[in-house]
Amino acid sequence: MSSSPNVLIVRAYINKMDSNDFAGAHKYVTDDFVYEAEPKPLGVLGEGYVNETGLDQAGYKALHEKVSKHFELKTTIENITENPGGKIIVRAMTKYQQPVTLSSSAPAFSGETPFTAEYEFVGDKIRKLKVIGTHSFPAGFSA
User: Fold this and answer.
1) Which whole-number Å values give the CA distances from 48 to 61, 103, 117, in the listed order?
2) What is the mean pLDDT of the segment spanning 10-24?
3) Which residue has the higher pLDDT, 143 or 85?
């Protein structure tokens, strides 16, 4: 696994997103950052979409803020590589767990979602994040 400066940025970005430190995570992205998902996550609609599959920085932050209200996330990187063009490719697994509350009799949701992510850079900032995988949330969940 590479430990280039951009690989370290990607690792730090993922850690910040997992810990819901959105302000810290977005210090690693450009002002015109774009997030794309293939396929588009079901049940995820709203502000910030720059096209049918892409979110701008504000939209991506809003999506993660909504998700973090319902789930604790932990991403495990299985493989991370840097191609000759500077794109960082990450294969990972995100585990999600709905926190158990004493006031709820409903069972907590949990699961895991494998994905591949491509990070494109401009200088030392992430310009584009493209995630390819199964963006599944439990039935009934709508961000």
Assistant:
1) 9, 33, 20
2) 92
3) 85
Distance CA 44, CA 100 (A): 23
The CA-CA-CA angle for residues 119, 138, 65, to 5°, reads 50
**Sign of the dihedral defined by the CA atoms of residues 32, 36, 40, 43, in that order:** negative
Q: What whole-number distance in Å separates Cα of residue 60 and Cα of residue 55?
A: 6
SS3 state at 1: coil
Q: Are 63 and 40 in contact (CB under 8 A)?
A: no
At a CB cut-off of 8 Å and minimum separation 6, what does 46 contact? 59, 62, 63, 143
Structure tokens of 33? 């950052």
- State both tokens at 126: 């992430």
pTM above 0.85, yes or no: no
Q: Return the structure tokens found at 135.
A: 């963006």
Helix (H/G/I), strand (E/B), else coil: 98 = coil
